[in-house]
Structures are given as structure tokens and as C-alpha cells.
Design brief:
Immunoglobulin-like, 6-stranded antiparallel beta sheet
Length: 80
């Protein structure tokens, strides 16, 4: 169990987890812009754009964020 826990805590890969009305973002580098209609995020692999209505940051700690609202579209622009 400790091996699994340390693997999770030390994991530095960018990850998105989409729920019905939330988006959990892990290991991003910077929030580029935040509005109620669009949130853009810089990652080590490129940029992520989240579009929707009533978007908001619910939780924001270093490298981790929980976005809420009516998510309509997610676009990614990853480096080649």
C-alpha cells in the first residue's frame, strides 16, 4: 500500500479527470486565464482550453485545481 501511495504522491504527469460538472487538473504548470466562459491551462505537454458556462475554480493548490461549471468543450494543443 505504501508503494501505491508514494507512486501517487510522486507522480508528476499531467492528468485531467472529467466528472459531470467538474474537471480535476493535476500537475499543471500555470493557469493562463480564468473567466466564467473559458479557462486556459499551461502544462508541460502543451495547453488545455476549457469552455463552458459558469466556470469557476473551486480548489486551487500548487499543481492541482478543481474546476466547476457546465463544461461544454475541452481542447488540447499538445507539443509534437
Amino acid at each position: 500500500m505504501l508503494k501505491k501511495l508514494s507512486g501517487y504522491l510522486l507522480d508528476k504527469k499531467f492528468r485531467l479527470t472529467l466528472y459531470s460538472d467538474k474537471l480535476h487538473v493535476i500537475n499543471y504548470e500555470e493557469m493562463l486565464s480564468v473567466s466564467d466562459m473559458e479557462i486556459s491551462i499551461l502544462t508541460s505537454e502543451g495547453k488545455v482550453f476549457v469552455y463552458g458556462e459558469d466556470l469557476a475554480l473551486m480548489k486551487l493548490i500548487e499543481g492541482e485545481a478543481l474546476l466547476s461549471g457546465k463544461i461544454k468543450k475541452i481542447e488540447v494543443d499538445f507539443h509534437d
